[in-house]
Each structure stands twice: as C-alpha cells, then as structure tokens.
Design brief:
This protein is mostly helical and about 140 residues long. The chain has one domain: Uncharacterized conserved protein DUF2267 (Globin-like). The chain is built from eight helices and no strands. The chain is globular. The termini are far apart.
Length: about 140
Amino acid sequence: MSTKGLSVFDETAHLTNAWLKELMESLDWDDRQRAYRALRVVLHTLRDRLPLIQVTDLAAQLPMLVRGFYYEGWQPAPASTQDQSVKDFVAHVDDAFVTDPDEDPERIVRAVFTLLSNHVSAGEIKDVIGCLPKEIKSLWVD
C-alpha cells in the first residue's frame, strides 16, 4: 500500500513489516497479526518497567509506526517496582496469548528482545538492560 507522496509513511510501513517478518521467522510463525501482538505486548511490558528517560531513548530508535504502538495507552509514571521476576514479566505476555495456549510466552519475550538487539544500537540496549531487575535481564540473549 502506497501513500502516494508521503515516503516517510511508506518507509515506516515497510520497516515495520520487515521487523514483523523477522519476528515471525524467529518464532516460526506465519501470522503477521500474531507477530504484531507479540511485539506490542512485549514492548508495553518492557516500557512499563523502564525509567521515563529510558522509555523515550528506546522509542527514538524504533520505526515510527512501532513507536506509535509502543506509546499507545502509556501513562507516564515512575517505572514499576512490581513484577520484578521473569515469571511476572512473562505473565503479561501470557495474558495476551490466552487464546493461544500452546505458545511459550518466555520464548516470545526472548524473540522480541533479540529483534530489538538486532535493530537498536548496542549502547541503547545496554542502557535498557541496565535498568531492568536482575531476573528480567536474564531474558536478553548475549
């Protein structure tokens, strides 16, 4: 779909689709909607555990379309001090896949974190990881 003259929209749609395709391949899925749901819920769960400055620094490196759904529904507040464990973090993803019980939510989180590591600067990823509780850091692939 072309926006006819607004190349910035064409570019972000293309880039977002490339990210979704990469995520689908890493999860061995063939459903773009499912990949979108995975990316969205993991980004929201991550966002809600980061300090405000880190939320915005990460957002600056996301494709414009991804940045839009990253911020969707966001209520700026101090980073959550609850949900410090992997189990709690992954539970948010599991909730989004309640109708898809055969999917491993931790696998989804790891795949999205890998996607971010592939496309966001190493310095920014290091900063993001540095803000997370120790247990959640373990979900990032070195």
